[in-house]
C-alpha cells in the first residue's frame, strides 16, 4: 500500500492553527483528511472547538474528514489509525497532525523516521508553520520554540496580517527568511489559505530541487542585512514612522539563535570523506541541527546526490542525471541552533576532491 502523506501543522500559541484546520475540516475539497490533535495528555480544548460537542475520539465530518484526538503517544495513534484504515473501518487519504503551540516539531517529525511501523504506513509530506504576523517578533525574541518551529518549516503561513501594516509584514518576512531561507512564505487570512499551500507540498521528499532565494545567497556572500535596515530606517527616532521603524531597528539587531547558512562549491565531493565528516558532525551537533538539505556533486558520478536530514537522522538518494552543459556543483543549506558555520564550511571544503 502507498504510504499515507502526512503534514505536521505547527506554530506558536494562538498563531491560528485551529482556525486553519477548522476551515479545512469544513470545506468541500474532496479530500479525506484525518486530523490528529497532538495534545500529549493535556485537556483538549481544540478538539472541542473543531468538532464541537462530541465525546467520540474519532469523529467523521460531513465533508469526509476525520478528526481524532490523541491524548498520549502519537506513534500509537498513527499505528492504530493505519490499522483501522487497512481493516476498512475508516477511510482517509492523508493525515494532518496539529501540534500544541509550545511543541518542538522535531520529535514529531522524527516519529516518521524512527518508528518502523509508522515509517511503513506514512510518509512525511511537510512541516507547515503558522506564524502570527501580529505577535511573531516578540515570540521569536522570547521563545526558542517559536524559532524552532520556523526553522523546521517547509512552508510558512502568515496569519493575522490584517492586524499589521505592510512594513511590519515585510520586516517579519525578512526575519523569517533569515531564520529559514528554504521555506516559501504565504498568507492565511483567518485560515483562508489555498489547500495546495498546506497539503501535498512534498517538502520532505528527496528531490533535487533545492529552492533558495538568490537574494539570500547574495546576502550570504557578504551583504549585511542589518545595514540595509539601518539606512532604510534612518536614525530619526522623532519621525512619524517611529513606531514601526524603532521596531524594525530593534529587531534587525537581534540575532536569532536559530539561523541558516549555505555551502556552495563547484568542485565534486569525495563520498567517503563527506560521509565521515557529516557522520561526525551529526554526532556532535545533531541536537542543534534542525533541518538540512542539499544537492551534491560526487566525484565521477553521473547523477546528482540528494541528501537531507533532521537532527541525527540523515538520508540520501540518487537524483537526476547532470544535464549536458549544466554546471556541476553542490549546494547545501543547514538550519540550526548556534551551529558553528565556519567549522561546517571548512570541514566540507576538506571533503572536496
Ligand atoms: N485578526 C485575525 N485573527 C485571527 C486570524 N487567524 C486566527 N485568528 C484568531 O486568533 C485566535 C487564535 O487562533 P487559533 O486558531 O485558536 O490559534 P491556535 O494556533 O490553534 O492556538 P493554540 O492551539 O492555542 O496554540 C483566534 O481568536 C482566531 O480567531 C487572522 O488571520 N486574523
In a nutshell, what does this entry contain?
This protein is α/β, with parallel strands linked by helices.
Separation of the first and last Cα atoms = 42 Å
For the biggest β-sheet, the strand order reads 3-4-2-5-1-6-7-8
Apparent shape:
globular
CATH architecture of the largest domain: 3-Layer(aba) Sandwich
GO cellular component, one term: cytoplasm
Protein name: GTPase, G3E family
Keywords: Chaperone, Hydrolase, Nucleotide-binding
InterPro entries: CobW-likC_sf (IPR036627), CobW-like_C (IPR011629), CobW/HypB/UreG_nucleotide-bd (IPR003495), P-loop_NTPase (IPR027417), Zinc-reg_GTPase_activator (IPR051316)
Describe it for me?
It is a single chain. With 353 residues, the chain is an alpha/beta fold. It folds into 3 domains: 4-197, P-loop containing nucleotide triphosphate hydrolases (Rossmann fold, 3-Layer(aba) Sandwich), CATH 3.40.50.300; 224-252, no CATH class; 258-350, Hypothetical Protein Yjia, Chain: A,domain 2 (2-Layer Sandwich). It has 13 helices and 13 strands. The protein has helices spanning 17-26, 45-51, 74-86, 105-114, 116-121, 136-142, 144-152, 166-179, 214-220, 225-233, 242-252, 271-285, 341-350, and strands at residues 4-11, 33-38, 58-60, 66-70, 94-99, 122-132, 155-159, 185-187, 258-265, 289-296, 303-310, 313-321, 330-337. An 8-stranded mixed β-sheet has the order 3-4-2-5-1-6-7-8, sandwiched between helices. A 5-stranded antiparallel β-sheet has the order 9-13-10-11-12. A hairpin with a 6-residue loop joins strand 10 and strand 11 (303-310). Mean pLDDT is 79; it is low at 40-56 and 217-253. Bound molecules: guanosine-5'-triphosphate.
